[in-house]
Every structure is written in structure tokens, then in C-alpha cells.
Amino acid sequence: MTTYHPLLDLPPFPADRYSLLADRLKTLLATRNDVVFVQAEAILALEAAATSLGRPGLVVVSIVTSPYGGYFGDWLRRAGGEVHTVQAEPGRPIAVRAVDAALSTLPRVDLVAMVHAETSSGILNPLPEIAALVRSRGALLVVDAVASVGGHALDVDALGIDVCAIGAQKALAGPTALSALSISPRAWAAMRPQPAPSSLSLLDLKANWLDRGRGVLPGMPAAIEFWALEAALDRVEAEGLVNVVARHARAAEATRSGVRALGIEPWETDPSRASALATAVAVPAAVEANDLIARARGFGAVVNPGFGKTATPLIRLDHTGQRARRADVLANIMGLGAALRSYGIEADISVASDVVSEAYVTR
Fold first, then answer.
1. Burial class of residue 213 in the structure, from the number of CB atoms within 10 Å of its CB (0-12 exposed, 13-18 middle, 19+ buried)
2. At residue 47, what are phi and psi to the nearest 5 degrees?
3. What is the pLDDT of residue 307?
4. Cβ contacts of residue 94 below 8 Å, gap of 6+?
5. Spatial CA neighbour of 155 closest among 146, 147, 164
6. Res 163 pLDDT > 80
7. Is there a smaller number of Cβ atoms within 10 Å at the N or the C end of the chain?
8. Alpha-carbon span 194 to 204, nearest angstrom
9. pTM for the full model?
């Protein structure tokens, strides 16, 4: 007897729908640039961008606000680039003045790379201001928008982003093992062919997909990932991208208010410098982070450890994608409050719950 399983024996993704899917991503990103798919988690898309753009003598300013920004600079160094790192304070957004100073000290800058939003520490980098600085120097701008797409406003063409890497697994609530890049004509022109065919060569992808009419993708496309991305975009478009972004902003606002009502401050106190995807808080003194996480999860919160170096251990309350809703935010605040109280730390869960609910009252 054959048993039906919804995840097995899927039909192949139709060849004529890859280009339609790419065009839907163009609309999402507000760009006329080419969009190509990378059949892997977005870290490979970022490495492919660095490998394709990197060359000896390339002068790079690498903005580092988490390990991810550091990886990109390392890949460009591997390709022979001259990489100048602008390092933010641990767990904090980059200061525009620090980027301006770095750009001003260099006679030539070919490329600037940065991450938009960091779920690792719950911060948001000042992309519009940095993009304006990069344009004034005529450099290429590469942006890791894997976390921010769908959670923050992102207009690729208006900002002048030459390479924008995205994944669907964060605010878009889609699949993990499929990512995409928007690539400007300037970025294509700056790329160098690899010495042999490579999954890290975007020029190979251009020749084997874009230049052949955007039919069947090269290799063996994973149908389940493309069906899942299509379903995720269906849901985003049905809700409306503006509403998805607003829903994340409301979840962040409610979470920050609830955290304060519990008697603790968000890690980033300025909401304009905070990501709408996750809210980080410092672990109270004499409390071990992993134990606090385990207790909060036991009370129903979706909470994770911080990622990267900070002077104080962080935990992150997740309100990303489909979790950017009132019920999930409330569960996070109540779970964290119950965990704090289990240590004997005073935390008024009732007041915090009321504060979260008030944040969702229609204004």
C-alpha cells in the first residue's frame, strides 16, 4: 500500500516559473537589477558574491557588526583584496562617523560591504546614511539583507545597492536552503571569471541561467525549496509587504515595552538602532545565560543566545516572520517573566502582559 506524504514525490518546479519567481523578488526588493538564485543557505550566496568580486588590489571597507561581516572581509582578503575593517562596538550598530572617517582616509575605495540588520544582537545599521556615503565615493555597495528583508524597509535601487543578498527564512517566513542576490550592471562588470567552473562563481550562474533565457536552473534544483519560496511569497503578497514590515515594527515595539515592564532594559535602548526581528536583553548578574534560556523556553518563550562578542551575555527574544504577532510576543514576555521569577528576581508579569496588549490597541 502506497502512503501519501506531502513532502515526498513532489513534482518538479516548472522551468517557466523560475523567472517569474525572480521577478517577484525584484518587486519585493524594489529593483530593476538582475536577481539570481543560489541553491543554498544565504551564507553561500554571500561567499559567492565575495569570491566573484574579490581580486588582488581591490580596496574594500568592511563594516563589521557581527561575525557575518567579518566573514565577508575574510573572503575578500582570500581573493587578494586590500580590506580595511571598520569595527563597531561589540553588539552595537556601526556609527556613521566611523564609516565616513574610514572612507575619507583612503584615496580610493572600490567596495563597501555591510550587514543591514543583525538578529545576533538585535541591532539595525544605518543603511541609508552609509549608502549615501558610498555613492559619494563611487564605490560598489554590497549589503547582507538576509535578516532585514521583509522586516525593514528596503529599496535596493533608491539606496544604490549593487549586490543585495537575501534569504527567505527570517521575516519572510520561508525556506532556509535557498537564497537570492540582486546584482547591478556595475557589479557584473566588476566581477572576474574563476579559473574553473565553480558554484561560487556568479558569472557562471549568469552565463548558465540569465544569458540562456532564465529557463531551467543549472544543476539539480531542489523543487521543495522553490515551491516553499513561492508559497512564502504568496503569503507575503497577500498580506502586503508594507503590512509585513509594519507587523514586525509593532512586534518589536510591544516586546521592548514588555521587557521594560518586567524591570529590564533592551540591549539597544534606541529603537531607531534596533532590529524589528529580535529584541536582545542583557542577562542579569549571577544568572547563567543558557540556564535562563532553558527556563524561559520551558515557560513557552522563543528565546536564543546572543551570537558574537559582547561585554555582557545576551539573550534574544524572537519575533521574526510568523512570530511577529501579538500572541507570540505575549508568550515571549510571559515566559521570560516566569523564568526571571524562578530566580527570585522581581518581575510583574501581569503588568508586562497588559503593556504588550496595549501596544496592539489600534491607534
1. exposed
2. -65, -35
3. 76
4. 63, 65, 86, 88, 114, 125, 126, 130
5. 164
6. yes
7. N
8. 8
9. 0.94
Q: How is domain 241-359 classified at the CATH fold level?
A: Aspartate Aminotransferase, domain 1 (3.90.1150)
What is the Cα–Cα distance from 248 to 265, expressed in whole angstroms? 19
Angle, to 10 degrees, between the axis of helix 326-342 and the axis of helix 289-298? 120
Q: Is 57 exposed, middle or buried (0-12, 13-18, 19+ CB in 10 A)?
A: exposed
- Pairing state between β 123-124 and 117-118: antiparallel
Give the residue among 327, 174, 150 at the shortest CA–CA distance from 248. Answer: 150
Integer Cα distance of 312 and 307 in angstroms: 12
132-135 long-range contacts, CB within 8 A, separation 24+: 133/96, 133/99, 133/100, 133/103, 134/103, 134/109, 134/160, 135/160
Cα 247 from Cα 255, distance rounded (Å) = 12
16-239 CATH choice from 3.40.640.10, 3.40.50.10490, 2.40.10.120, 3.40.47.10: 3.40.640.10
Which string of DSSP letters, residue by residue, matches 3-48?
Answer: PP-TTSSPPPPPTHHHHHHHHHHHHHHT--SEEEEESS-HHHHHHH
Q: How confident is the model at residue 103 (pLDDT cuts 50, 70, 90)?
A: very high
The CA distance from 23 to 13, in Å, is 16
Beta pairing partners, 318: 278
Query: How does pLDDT run across 114-124, given as a tens digit for each residue?
Result: 999 998 889 99
First and final C-alpha spacing in the chain: 57
> Rounded to whole angstroms, how far apart are CA atoms 265 and 39?
40
- Grid cell 581573493 is found at 79
For residue 34, the number of C-alpha atoms closer than 13 Å in the C-beta half-sphere is 19
Cα angle value 291/292/293 (rounded, 5°)? 90
Distance between CA 240 and CA 257 in Å, rounded? 26
Domain ranges of the chain: 16-239, 241-359
